[in-house]
Design brief:
single chain, alpha/beta, Rossmann fold, 3-stranded antiparallel sheet, 10 strands, 32% helix, binds fructose -6-phosphate
């Protein structure tokens, strides 16, 4: 695993934006795997800046997001659909039809998971998958458990994830209790994975990622089986 250790959140965001920019310039029709949450916001801000300066063209880029709450409508300002448009898609020239996010208000969640998994499988492999990491080591919404799922599936959120995400909602009760998420196998099929982490609260999860064990109690440890992972983190998460 390659490590890019950064002093600040800003530096981490620029380093991540550099990797995406390089890919988009080299391969304009690339496929990106994207994450939500607070961690990649600075990277998205930087990508928008570079687009506005004319340095990047997203007209042929295709994206797959990792996950979406369930049930939630795309218009809900807490949906990941809303988040992605608010932070990135509405500010760049990516065609709406190139954007893929699990549908949070699909009537049949299982069918939606199959549809999403099949769509990813039928597409060209994801060139770069961006990941954040939960304090408990989750990636996407693959939460610590006795077993993990390989494919896109519906899952319950753990109490600790609901508590961590409550900061975005009016109250903890408003946090949806389920989500649709790519599975560990879906994530590991990306050609390259970039994991971003900042702040002390991520230190335990990053330590587990850097030792030699692989365990379902820290789903991110499965990234150790992937040949092309770059960890970009700040000193607080690392030390
Ligand atoms: C978001 C996602 C989650 C977050 C993780 C960290 O699409 O899949 O795994 O990456 O919960 O969230 P933040 O960045 O808010 O600490």
């Amino acid at each position: 695993m390659e490590l890019i250790l950064c002093k600040t959140y800003e530096e981490m965001s620029l380093a991540a934006a550099d990797q995406i920019s390089e890919l988009v310039c080299k391969k304009p029709d690339c496929t990106l795997g994207l994450a939500t949450g607070s961690t990649p916001v600075g990277m998205y801000r930087e990508l928008v800046k570079r687009y506005e300066k004319g340095e990047l063209d997203f007209s042929k880029v295709k994206t797959f997001n990792l996950d979406e709450y369930y049930p939630i409508s795309p218009e809900n300002d807490q949906s990941y659909y809303y988040f992605m448009h608010d932070n990135l898609f509405s500010h760049i020239n990516i065609p709406e039809e190139n954007i893929n996010i699990p549908c949070g208000n699909a009537p049949d969640a299982e069918a939606e998971c199959h549809r999403y998994e099949d769509l990813i499988a039928a597409s060209e492999a994801v060139d770069i998958q961006i990941l954040g990491i939960g304090q408990n080591g989750h990636i996407g919404f693959n939460e610590p458990d006795d077993f993990l799922y390989a494919s896109t599936h519906i899952t319950g959120l753990t109490d600790s994830t609901i508590a961590a995400n409550a900061r975005f909602f009016e109250s903890e009760n408003d946090v949806p209790k389920k989500a649709l998420t790519m599975g560990i196998g879906t994530i590991l099929r990306a050609k390259k994975i970039i994991l971003l982490a900042n702040g002390k609260s991520k230190h335990a999860a990053i330590s587990a990622l850097l030792d030699d064990k692989i365990t379902t109690s820290c789903p991110a440890t499965f990234l150790k089986t992937h040949p092309n992972v770059v960890l970009i983190c700040d000193e607080e998460a690392y030390n």
